[in-house]
Protein 1
Amino acid sequence: MATGYLEILRARHALRLLTGTLVGRLPNATAAIALVVFVRAEGGTYSLAGALAAVYGVANAVGQPVLGRLVDLYGQPRVQLPAAVLAALSMTLFACCGTDPLPLAYGAVAAAGLFTPPLEGGLRALWPSVLRRDEQVHTAYAMDAIAQEIMYMVGPLLVTLCAALWDERAALLVLNLLGVLGALSVVASPPSRAWRSAPREAHWLGALRSPGLLALLGAFVFVGIALGSITVASVSYADGHGGDAVYGWMLAGLGLGALVGGTVYGARQWAGVPERRLRVLVALLAVCYLPLTLTPGPVAMVLLAVVSGVFLAPCIACAFIIVDRHAPSGTVTEAFSWLVTTFTVGASVGTGVAGPVVQAGGTVWGFAVPGAAGAVSLLVLLGTGRVLAAPARGGVVASSSENDPNRAVEPRFSSGDRA
């Protein structure tokens, strides 16, 4: 099973790019918890901490596709590194000034979110120039999804560790310094410096002029809603079954399930087009959320949480392939960044929806929200099947061949060929 992953990691520059991207994304992955911990240490309320985290999230959702488009236009080093430095300086300003005055705090946090570099989309644009075959790129997408789960499990521990060793302000500063170093490692690499987007047609919609990409984004809003709502429902469950420890175990279970599912998914080649495969994966994701409504005891609930997470990483990895197939020529980084933004917005909506549902109907109804959101995502994919069946030309695979004329690149598959 591990052979495909080891083959990718042995490819020149692959380990550096993956590690640098993950380290560079630490400030973003830990922003919510780091902001809450810091604001509480400064004597601020949970409401203020939540508001600042929300401002960061909204600004980040706006900034990712904008910066992604700039990367497609001007290359990675000229956008990613300056953005990382500006984001780190903004968070440093917030860490030094604290929550007083409030306008400055909100402005600094918003700038930190807005300038967060689109390293996630950038890495996916780089994989085809580093790896030799399409199937390796697809495995790399799965490995990327797995690495995200590990990062989101390890990130909060790093915040806690830094706060314990020094203090909450130091946690913000250290994590943002690591973010700059990670971005520097990526943009200084030969693949990043050599990468150029494919020629693009000037259009104000950019990547969003692709109907297939719009259909995928519409479906993934609801996948994000499912993930956001399950965290709120888990808090409600934990309040009556052991408190924070149970909540932590449930989220760890979700991450473990996604890790296992993504590992198995990426370890083999799949027949059939990815658009059809995504429909199956989303259906399985929705079905696996339903047993959570049984709300058994803590041990059984943690096991159900593991099961509910199994198909999350495969859904994300499959979506990466579909973005590649439907992104208009010259817009690949922007297209991947739109997927990140859509997922983030969906998770925020899910958090906002689940709260009133739990308040009105209790924990059981809170856990019904993820299943319902997964079902709606499936309906969107089924309703847009004809649009998704006609992938665009000129995405990642096409652009990568222009970067390396000596590399033999397999042609993009049509909707009737093997993914």
Protein 2
Amino acid sequence: MLNQASSGRPQILHAYKTYHPETQGGIPTAIAALCAACPAVDSTVLTCGRGGAEEVDGAWVVRARAYGQLFSLPLSPSWPFHFWHAAPQADIVVVHAPFPIADAAVALQFPEHVGLVVHWHSDIVSQRRLGALLAPFTKMLLDRADAIVVSNPSLVQSAALAGHREKLTIIPFGVDVASWGAPLDNEQTAKRALLRARFPRLIAAVGRLVPYKGFSTLIEAMHGVDAQLMIVGEGPQRPKLEQKILESGLSGRVVLCGKVPSAELRTILRSADIFALPSVLPSETFGIAQLEAMACGLPVVNTDLPTGVPWVARHHKEALTVPPGDAPALGMTLKRLLDEPALARELGEAGRLRARTVFSRAQFTQRVQNLYGRILVERGAFLPYAALPSALTEA
């Protein structure tokens, strides 16, 4: 099942509930970056979806068929069987949590000779009863893990990780700063000119259209802001947001763009004056979208969540931070940045510098690869250490 399992190269199996191109989002993007970063490793992604297998950007992607969702989890009875078949062929299995189906699969059956890394992206926030029910499986997953990766300091305090502090490693996500900040080509420049003519005071926001992203609050905040708003992303909340825009009389100023290609997204960001990340729940643990905006030189308005969001873009440094769910405060802050272009430029340039120096994709992938390489050596999967592919070893 693993891609080129007899190649003699390390075999890495990533396990998560969704993946490109069926869905976008921070975690699939991070997995894709890790798969692409090291061609000397064979990467397989086991996920849920329409069923079947295909190569996606150099990684072998296997999709167990899903029959809808329940509690935000795919209903995929075959996923554990795919996992139990594939895991023994891997050198390292990487579980991207939260994904309770994977927790249970590891707890019930996992090969002793295989390394296990857990990327703990978030606690279970919305489905707490489900999380409590599955807590024994999650504990068994974490007990078995060789290492646990978190993206920011706030996750170190997670109650679920309390008994596993010695396994924790903080590795922030990263983005391709050079690509996001590169000059626009002629076609993009022309599109930017059209956007600027149509939307002279433009606020951009990006994310799945789900409640915790806070787009309803952002739309409400636009009542008092003389500006236009483009929200890039798709999701189940779209009909409600469309209705809210219509009832609020904002149809001419607020646009739901749907899902767009990365090149078009870059054009939108480079056309905007401000980037807004209005998330209202701790389900938003990091906010990779604000990193992309920072790489484009945009000032950020984000929310004071008890997560990595205000750590990535810091108040009065790269961002202005407001209480989550506070539409009047959000509107006033957006208006301030629009009316104070010098402050906006200062925050935007600081954000570009922070993205380049702290949150580059190269730093993220290299640190994760170093961790995987250490586990391979400790488990004796690839010896001697010097024989490992250089991309998996520390300098």
